[in-house]
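Consider the record:
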Amino acid sequence: METLIGQGNAPAHANGAAAPVKDSSDQDFMADVIDASMTVPVIVDFWATWCGPCKTLGPIIEKAVKEAKGAVKLVKIDVDKNPAVAGQLRIQSIPAVYAFFQGRPVDGFVGAQPESQVKQFVQRLAKTAGAAAGPSPIDEALEHAEAALKEGDAATASAIFGQVLQHEPENLPAIAGLVRCLVKAGELEEARKQLAKVPANQANDKLVAAARAALELAEQAGQKQGGLEELKAKLAKDPNDHQSRYDLALALYGNGEAEPALDELLELFRRNRGWNEEAARKQLVKIFEALGPTDPLTLSARRRLSSLMFA
């Protein structure tokens, strides 16, 4: 394999680097794969016209590579017409897939694979290249948007997330981020419309789940806002008025007071953990999801909840 990488003087194709999927040959392997892989991972699909599994795998790989939008490229080599490279790589069964990056083989597999595994294979290669090359412009934009949102500048964050979605309409971090911006702005109906754009098979993505939790909390809280003092007065008269304490927690969260809201839910859980089918615990989990797993409030409240659960 090392001998293969060190040999070959085939001229590079003028437009070979621009095509995400192309056919190649023994003569062009050096230019199309080894040279091209110095800047972007190149997947090589060794196939033949008589190979049934090859016909199944080929379109799956092509689809995954095209979805990577230039982060990975695909070169297809017919082993019947081009036996030299396959022989040097000691390929004994097809379909055989090799991935090259920076002139060296870095991954691969043999035989037809499910679409989900092929997609993961391609995404893994794209991430490897991304780590070597640094963050992409899209990733940098998402970082800026998240920083703005964390600082309370939902308008700037919303604008950046929107720009990302113009380039990548199905970018999950951008959709989830825009939903959270809309929730902060009180535009709950528009937030729900944006959330509806998430494909069903990605609905459980952690960022999407956090955005959905934030929206649901805002909708619940909107029904309770305005009655803070009344709810506090009810609790002063009867500390075991669990419904009033639960409503107060929702109202506090809707008023931007996440920490007092968590305190009330924890107190409700302490007093009666089973009340209303464990409503306090379920609401705590939803807030944890909306705040994010690394938020200091989440970490603190999770510890307190664990202490109560195992007390």
About this structure: Confidence is low (pLDDT under 50) at residues 1-18.
